[in-house]
């Protein structure tokens, strides 16, 4: 794996001073340096503490009884045999939990989106395979599972709704009768004069593309441990493998009927999440509820079948895409219709629109097309809920648009790279037709660098020779824009008008060490490293003197959590705002101690020095002691506020960009696709740590390979779920991921503190479309059109067989 970095400065912003170029090396700062991850020794030596490591005195274990049917009425539940098992303590059903408030989706916060209510345990109707209907408590997880298997549920099977287009039909059975419709939301938006652009177009390309159903499948499944302290005034302590401790507390407290002050959420080390763990699940409610009812702590650890059947699914979207173009290849209009197979419930808090609406809103991407329109539908079906998983709806939207652009290039006889460059926006700040304001990027430069990475002219020569030899090679490109730094502005621009609030607190302790608390959470991103780098630079201290604290609502300041590539932007901004205040106080304390002007003090490596006066210094530890115990000699604000500052930060819109390029070989006899090369160009603004950026991009690319070729959550025609293990749900291993070629461009953000942009989802957004386009390029002699992912060998072989049958001459065996 190779990593190359260059820098650009098209926006000429104040943040540009943080960028680097080959001619001007970065100053001796931590930010930008490949600092090794400080959390790795603890995690790699087995000293991490994950949710299954949490053990409380007297703890019981929970196992959930789940529906084997896609749609069924619950006639009765008999727990007699289960309760007869020695060690089984209790069995609770939805009726036993009638004191809980309903779980309500975020529909009321979204105009045009229906709110949906559900009971944490289904009471009358189960709506998908895996829907929880009862919970068994026992002295061990094995006894709880034994009891679960003995709970007798009498079912009345109902007709399942499995096809999203059938679900939209007025005569369709209803998944949730209380809504009166299966469609959670129908939304439309347009900009410019789309109809005229299509009417006057010299050429119109139309495709339909189905992005398959996938999930996160993290190494560590979900888990919840809860205890109820009756003597403490009715207080819940909840341990959860969540990405968003404060937001989880805010959303489950009203369902449990307590104030947020009566509920603490603690998220220990989390073994992967990828968006799945920023959803509120029934188990997040049920486990603390039964801890209160049983009077004992309760622990539940999800198994892999539950993860796959009843967690969160993603990206199951049918896309209809149209492009209007002039004869010379200028694209004049985009139009899309996006239908998400939403599953049985509207996920909390993001709803199924986290896929469909963002696909529509970002339809124009990095192209200067001014006439754009989309419509979306979000029908419920009797499947697991759709929610936020890495890349969300940007992935299917990217697939539809980029596949359509390659189709347009073939129709016009133009090179697909040149067609994209012809229509691409410039590097300056740019406002899209739907009002998103890009903060400067390297759109054309990233595509050109990806083209060079695969040696495009040489590849075309090699491709022609291979075809003469009966081998089918292809190349595909996928330039992208990724919304990052998800805060109020970015969310509103993306069609998700939810307010965001994030803070960080910076404290210099009396011994000169530094403690930072944040409402973000790390589940593999390396926050203990990157946020310490930022803090050390701002305070002028050694990085190993900084401790990053997060994951506990009792000890960390409020924040909305980690997802949507937001942590680098929010973490840098909130820490910098707080650290600047603390640094200013340290400087004034040092100036008083050294009898110098504030402007002459510099803080470097934990020492305050007077500029131009060698030897006139004071270490940070002495400054801190003076700040705490110096009495009236200290500045007034230090006497009042000490050496702690807490600041909120809500950035403007920040957008990363880049391009993926894939070179593949397709074996037309078997349908197997081999990825020969996968190159990625990433522009995430000022890079905090190249090692961590490299890891994020590489992991996201591997995820994208899975989306393109392997991952498929399948249901039978009767709604039976058939992808309940990792033998049936496949994701990439080292044998499917080639050696990756990674390149970096730095275009500082015009709006964020430090010029930083996010990075976490780029590879997942871009790689699938690059791979699909490469496969279509390889199979272009057959005239094959790819219409779905994953591109399994069976699917590819079927397309080749059909193409050969339609052609003259003998069919290939």
Summarize the structure.
With 813 residues, the protein is an alpha+beta fold. The chain is built from 21 helices and 31 strands.
Structural descriptors:
single chain, 813 residues, alpha+beta, Aldehyde Oxidoreductase, domain 3, Aldehyde Oxidoreductase, domain 4, 7-stranded mixed β-sheet, 5-stranded mixed β-sheet, 21 helices, 31 strands
Could you say which overall geometry the principal axes of the C-alpha atoms support? globular
Average pLDDT:
94
Number of strands: 31
Structural class: alpha+beta
β-strand percent reads 15-25%
Please write the CATH class name of the domain at 51-158 and 221-270 and 276-310: Alpha Beta
Explain this structure.
With 813 residues, the protein is an alpha+beta fold. Among the domains are: 51-158 and 221-270 and 276-310, Aldehyde oxidase/xanthine dehydrogenase, a/b hammerhead (Aldehyde Oxidoreductase, domain 3), CATH 3.90.1170.50; 501-648, Aldehyde Oxidoreductase, domain 4 (2-Layer Sandwich). Helices cover 29% and strands 23% of the residues. Strands 4-8-2-15-12-13-14 form a 7-stranded mixed beta sheet, with helices on both faces. The chain has a 5-stranded mixed beta sheet with strand order 1-31-30-29-21, with helices on both faces. The protein has a 5-stranded mixed beta sheet with strand order 10-18-17-16-11. The longest helix has 28 residues, at 567-594. It is globular. Residues 9-27 have low confidence and may be disordered.
